[in-house]
């Protein structure tokens, strides 16, 4: 009898349902929720690493999550500038300064775009606004203003002096960081 009881328990033990009665059953899990990773932070790190196309994608994800605010517009414009898309960069940065006229990085980066396009008088004005809204705290913005004013006064700069002089400025949540020119 004892042997029959052991045999019955072994045979009935194989009748497990394999957890197929769970609510999710055999189906794959659903779509993952929102990511906790800040797209702006990822984009800033990619920009610092020279991965401008990937940074642009990260900034686009940030814009999709946060909406088009002054931070995302300025970041998108800066990435477009680094990719050589001057017209797109100018449009985005103009939208950023129209949205928040007290945001120094957007003014500065718009000035960089205008310098690259050869519009020195307007670029100098953008650097003045960046310097004024920054209260003169940024050495890079001051240097950009100084170089633009020098070019405005002396239009006989050699091309070697014009390349690589101006620096982009970006901002993270609550503060902004100055990028070094490569």
Shape category:
rod-shaped
Kindly report the average pLDDT value: 82
Straight-line N-to-C gap: 86 Å
Q: Which strand-content bin applies to the residues? A: under 5%
Q: Could you please say which CATH topology applies here?
A: Serine Threonine Protein Phosphatase 5, Tetratricopeptide repeat
Helices and strands, in N-to-C order?
Answer: HHHHHHHHHEE
Which CATH architecture would you pick? Answer: Alpha Horseshoe
CATH superfamily placement? Tetratricopeptide repeat domain
**Widest sheet: strand ordering:** 1-2
Number of helices: 9
Give a verbal description of the structure.
There is one protein chain. This protein has a two-stranded antiparallel sheet with strand order 1-2. It has 182 residues and is mostly helical. The protein has a single domain (38-155, 165-178), classed as Serine Threonine Protein Phosphatase 5, Tetratricopeptide repeat (Alpha Horseshoe). It is built from 9 helices and 2 strands, in the order αααααααααββ. 60% of the residues lie in helices and 4% in strands. The longest helix has 15 residues, at 52-66. The chain is rod-shaped, with a radius of gyration of 28 Å. Strand 1 and strand 2 form a beta hairpin.
Task: Please describe the structure with a list of short key phrases separated by commas or semicolons.
mainly alpha, 60% helix, Serine Threonine Protein Phosphatase 5, Tetratricopeptide repeat, two-stranded antiparallel sheet, 2 strands
In summary, what is this structure?
With 182 residues, the protein is mainly alpha-helical. The chain has helices at 2-13, 39-48, 52-66, 70-82, 86-99, 104-116, 120-133, 139-153, 159-162, and strands at residues 169-172, 175-178.
């Amino acid at each position: 009898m004892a042997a029959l009881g052991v045999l019955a328990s072994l045979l009935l033990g194989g009748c497990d349902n394999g957890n197929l009665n769970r609510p999710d059953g055999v189906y794959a899990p659903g779509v993952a929720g929102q990511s906790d990773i800040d797209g702006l932070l990822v984009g800033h790190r990619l920009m610092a690493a020279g991965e401008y196309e990937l940074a642009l994608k990260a900034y686009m994800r940030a814009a999709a999550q946060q909406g088009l605010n002054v931070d995302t517009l300025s970041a998108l414009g800066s990435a477009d500038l680094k990719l050589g898309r001057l017209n797109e960069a100018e449009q985005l940065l103009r939208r950023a300064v129209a949205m928040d006229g007290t945001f120094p990085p957007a003014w500065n980066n718009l000035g960089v775009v205008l310098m690259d396009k050869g519009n020195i008088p307007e670029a100098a004005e953008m650097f003045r606004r960046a310097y004024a809204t920054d209260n003169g705290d940024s050495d890079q913005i001051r240097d950009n203003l100084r170089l633009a004013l020098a070019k405005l006064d002396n239009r006989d700069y050699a091309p070697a002096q014009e390349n690589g002089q101006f620096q982009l400025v970006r901002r993270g949540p609550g503060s902004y960081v100055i990028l070094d020119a490569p």
